[in-house]
Amino acid sequence: MDLEQIIQDAGDAQAAGALKTLLERFLNPAFGALPKSEIELLLLGALEEVGAVSSEPGVYELVSKLRVTRTKARNLIYERELRRLTLVELDSRVRNLLKRPIIQKSGDQFVLEVENPLVSDHLRSKVQALGHVSDGSFSPSIVKLPLDAVVALIEMYIPENQRAPVKAALIAAGAPDASFKGVLKAVLKKVAGKVASDTGEALLENASEYISPIIDATVAGLTDKISEVFREERADDG
To answer: DSSP letters along 102-156, please?
Structure first.
């Protein structure tokens, strides 16, 4: 990390502002009173302020720029986000992750790449609270969810007063007339069957085309879009 170049690029005003913020927080409540972990977070904030690291750095960015271990980088991100993100913001990030899953070919497993460790913990806690399990044994940044868990999460994130219109739009598209959860499950299985490739996974963009409007409860155009995944079945019946 070329600090001299970074400070030069930031400019005197921005560098002075970062130093002022760092010293003010370090001296509060008294010099040397902050624990080492808090001092590290202050320094990370100063590095962000002068542009040395991005506002939402990934694990590898911190590993490469700060020359720390992946465990240290994940801990820095976790502690930093714990102080910044509200529950509403965490829920928003989980909702956005659900819109862009990698779907395994069987359609029974949805894979989410969650770089932020705090968001990952929030996601897992939501899954557990809904009575399902998640698999993160492959990698700390990869979360595998069964279809039923994804359905339960999506249902939870769609407000109750918006579920009826979404359900009606999905049934009109060809989904079986069942409970809201049953309709979602049928649609997601069809989406998985349509977009999954021969390699066993669905492209993120393709899956998102169908899943995003459901999670956002965007009823306009939803029937036409979802009917695409039932079109082949109708053709076979004909």
So the answer is: EEBTTSSEEEEE---HHHHHHHHHHHHHTT---B-SS-TTEEEEEHHHHHHHHHH
